[in-house]
User: Which sequence fits this backbone?
């Protein structure tokens, strides 16, 4: 790229082969990429949305309706498209649901901005209008929201059902939703916050969706260590160890010279008595179950089995923390420091067979602050999709329990936003008014896509919805699309409900990313230089050996 001429000599400032796109061309290319990403997930929106089948380079298949999963699986190259994937990831991290909504909104905001750019409106003006509209939207959403009591289990179940709809859970939605609500209610902290990491979701192929169950305690995907150990322990006192029950190897290489068989025997006896001592220490505290994060020597296994102690080794760190929460025990890093006060308690520890695998169940805990859900399904793909639906439901119910505010679903908040933003635009005036009106029009993409995916006439549905909202009645702001009946219905009465945070986060992140992409007027892409093979730097990249392509066996 020449930056100017001096005495007829071009001055190069970028490496040869670098690409630069500037001005309208750069904006057009970025907007096109972002719209393509939004278009890819748009057909999955809503209860009647279709699924995508993703096949990766290894041939592994993922079949899903979940926006963030689709975008993560896609191998995206374009930098602006990658920013769209980031929106979905943020939405997923913050709220757990509404990922497709956020991406589709961002795509539509950019599409509307394209029309304004064609009218020679400067991107900075559009960005300022979008920012004002986004702030106003958050205010409006708060007025649409309804406060709820989180003591109402049935109500929370409706929220879980809305988030699971269309995600392969099918007929078992009700049962799965009640599992999600029970799990969240079990792990609510005293300050009202919910950490869904305390809910373990184990997937097991086999059985049907309806065989899924909730365990008030922990399920660990491991079996007991030794066949001579008891299969079932009632009134369990549980030792949680983050220490190996084996003889530590010395840090430095030590050499022991043994000159007679007696010395060897004494050495082995010493090792045995050390291991026996460790097991005796554990037994003396009254423990009858041991969960160990590290390894256990074969001889120690024998002693533990002899003492009738149910033992599991190499338990994941996260599972150890959840066990501590569920049983009220403490994870101890030195066996010699283990006391009776450190032990956790559970009514039952048992090894059970689920499908063709053995798992350890820790049940009947006094106050389990951590619970497990076992999901079952006919095939691996079914179980994976159920797991994604369950993750969404758990997060959404958790968010409602924390925020205690909900909005109607079915496109109702978006139509209300479009209506109120247009009224607001008229009070702003100037060129920003056009940007705010464009923001309002972009909101209508959500009911439009919902109708389109359900095979309804999208224009007709959006017009009906808008007229229902314009009536300004007591519940007009709750009117959303009933996709089965094909007409506007009060969504709160139809039990289609979402947490307020799903909508606020989606609008906020969509507006931020649209603004960021709009303000880019120059894309400078450096050329990737292929790494030179070692020792061949001076050979000009072996350009002269191009005739070797046809040699057999050189693939």
Assistant:
């Amino acid at each position: 790229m020449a930056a100017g001429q001096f005495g007829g000599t071009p001055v190069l400032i970028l490496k040869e082969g670098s690409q630069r796109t500037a001005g309208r061309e750069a904006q057009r290319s970025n907007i096109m990429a972002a719209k393509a990403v939004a278009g890819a997930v748009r057909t999955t929106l809503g209860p009647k949305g279709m699924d995508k089948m993703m096949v990766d380079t290894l041939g592994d298949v993922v079949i899903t309706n979940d926006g963030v999963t689709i975008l993560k699986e896609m191998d995206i190259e374009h930098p602006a498209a990658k920013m769209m994937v980031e929106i979905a990831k943020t939405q997923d991290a913050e709220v757990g649901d509404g990922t497709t909504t956020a991406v589709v909104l961002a795509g539509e905001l950019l599409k509307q901005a394209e029309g304004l750019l064609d009218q020679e409106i400067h991107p900075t003006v559009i960005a300022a209008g979008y920012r004002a509209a986004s702030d106003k939207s958050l205010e409006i959403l708060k007025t649409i929201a309804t406060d709820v009591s989180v003591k109402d289990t049935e109500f929370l179940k409706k929220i879980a059902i809305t988030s699971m709809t269309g995600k392969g859970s099918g007929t078992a939605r009700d049962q799965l939703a009640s599992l999600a609500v029970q799990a969240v209610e079990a792990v609510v902290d005293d300050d009202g916050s919910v950490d869904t990491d305390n809910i373990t979701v184990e997937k097991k192929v086999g059985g049907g969706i309806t065989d899924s169950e909730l365990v008030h305690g922990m399920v660990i995907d491991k079996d007991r260590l030794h066949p001579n150990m008891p299969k079932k322990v009632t009134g369990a006192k549980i030792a949680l160890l983050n220490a190996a029950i084996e003889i530590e190897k010395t840090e430095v290489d030590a050499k022991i010279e043994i000159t007679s068989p007696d010395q060897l025997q004494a050495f082995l006896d010493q090792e045995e008595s050390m291991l026996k001592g460790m097991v005796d220490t554990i037994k003396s505290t009254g423990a009858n179950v041991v969960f160990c994060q590290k390894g256990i020597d074969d001889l120690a296994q024998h002693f533990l089995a002899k003492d009738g102690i149910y033992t599991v080794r190499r338990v994941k760190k996260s599972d150890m923390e959840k066990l501590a929460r569920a049983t009220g025990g403490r994870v101890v890093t030195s066996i010699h420091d283990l006391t009776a006060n450190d032990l956790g308690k559970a009514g039952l520890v048992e090894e059970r067979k689920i499908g063709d695998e053995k798992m350890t169940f820790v049940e009947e805990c006094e106050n389990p602050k951590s619970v497990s859900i076992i999901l079952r399904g006919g095939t691996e793909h079914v179980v994976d999709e159920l797991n994604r639906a369950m993750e969404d439901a758990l997060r959404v119910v958790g968010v409602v329990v924390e925020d205690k505010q909900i909005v109607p679903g079915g496109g109702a908040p978006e139509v209300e936003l479009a209506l109120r933003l247009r009224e607001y635009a008229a009070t702003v005036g100037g060129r920003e008014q056009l940007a705010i009106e464009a923001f309002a029009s972009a909101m209508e993409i959500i009911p439009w896509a919902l109708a389109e995916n359900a095979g309804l006439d999208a224009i007709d549905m959006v017009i009906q919805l808008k007229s229902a909202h314009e009536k300004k009645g007591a519940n007009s702001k709750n009117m959303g699309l009933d996709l089965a009946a094909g007409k506007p219905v009060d969504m709160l009465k139809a039990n289609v409900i979402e947490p307020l945070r799903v909508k606020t986060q989606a609008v906020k992140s969509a507006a931020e990313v649209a603004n960021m992409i709009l303000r880019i007027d120059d894309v400078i892409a450096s050329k990737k230089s292929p790494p030179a093979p070692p020792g061949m730097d001076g050979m000009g990249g072996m350009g002269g050996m191009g005739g070797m392509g046809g040699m057999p066996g050189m693939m």
Remarks:
- The chain has three domains: 19-147+408-522, 153-214, 219-252+262-367.
- The two ends are 37 Å apart (CA to CA).
- The chain has a mean pLDDT of 81.
- The longest helix spans residues 261-284.
